[in-house]
Amino acid sequence: xxxxxxxxxxxxxxxxxxxxxxxxxxxxxxxxxxxxxxxxxxxxxxxxxxxxxxxxxxxxxxxxxxxxxxxxxxxxxxxxxxxxxxxxxxxxxxxxxxxxxxxxxxxxxxxxxxxxxxxxxxxxxxxxxxxxxxxxxxxxxxxxxxxxxxxxxxxxxxxxxxxxxxxxxxxxxxxxxxxxxxxxxxxxxxxxxxxxxxxxxxxxxxxxxxxxxxxxxxxxxxxxxxxxxxxxxxxxxxxxxxxxxxxxxxxxxxxxxxxxxxxxxxxxxxxxxxxxxxxxxxxxxxxxxxxxxxxxxxxxxxxxxxxxxxxxxxxxxxxxxxxxxxxxxxxxxxxxxxxxxxxxxxxxxxxxxxxxxxxxxxxxxxxxxxxxxxxxxxxxxxxxxxxxxxxxxxxxxxxxxxxxxxxxxxxxxxxxxxx
Length: 419
Prior knowledge:
Blueprint: E1 10-12, H1 20-32, E2 59-61, E3 78-86, H2 92-110, E4 131-136, H3 138-143, E5 174-180, H4 183-197, E6 201-210, H5 243-247, E7 264-273, H6 275-278, H7 283-290, H8 327-331, E8 342-343, E9 346-352, E10 358-368, H9 375-383, E11 392-402, H10 414-417
Antiparallel strand pairs: 1-2, 3-5, 3-6, 4-5, 7-10, 7-11, 8-10, 9-10
Helix pairs in contact: 2-4
């Protein structure tokens, strides 16, 4: 696998010595996506002779490349999102030193290697698809004397009428996304990066999320959210001819965006789902709110999950089969001038809120080459009449410029901080 090709996202590494039975299990796991059990000779076999039961821990994402990992990487089962603010008096020099430390740590941990001053939390695990992704917030540029290099695409998002945003859990100078297929591996990375920050930056906010575990279904499937809906069906695909144009900043960009070549912009929203209200709706009402069948994600107009929406189809009663305020209709690219974004969320559950309702929902993360052409027009349309709005609350928000991947010998953000 080439280091600069992040569309081929991972390679397999064997953990320990794997015999013939283990090698066969690895092949089955790669093909089927389900857990694989290795054969052992019997109860008398010593534990040291057992082969790995699964390939999940052996999957490795590359640190170096044209794009940072964690954007087109398949969804991981565990995630942490953290925003940092630079410490008072810290500027460009301290930020560069911090990104250098963070990049070295991320490179080691993504390869399944120990970090400096390692805590030993993940000693028994492989890389487990660990990715660490770094971004810069709007305020970062003023604090580092780089205002002239701040892209226009990083201008603050407009206010939306349905927002109930907590400023203490929004924005930030620096943003880190951690994803892995093992909870201990993800926490290990979180702890290492927090320690690396030292006196240069302090945590502004942290959010923790999860997805379905690798191998939990008999075949790879689009994830479901906490409402039970298939979520992510209409995502752009790396095989689409216009994928790079929509998701990544092109090479050769001029002016303030030059350092962003190969990068992307991440919109992060903490969306609380009002699950008690949602779960009171009968199934047919839930499906009309979304515009898709809950069982398999297919449009109400028929077909399979990947069948195009028939937005003009009417039923025997003369009404639109997919209601005019259905979420899938309003968010469809053809309803928004072709606006597209790559959604890559995590679910969250932070216990029970003071009002006795679940504090649960979606850590919405979307990627695009330009949020003014991706997220903003779609959210404006949803803000004006999405049937789903009655069942969700946007409680935190952030927009971050995520530069391209680091080349060999570079750290993430070096082209901004040292040019």
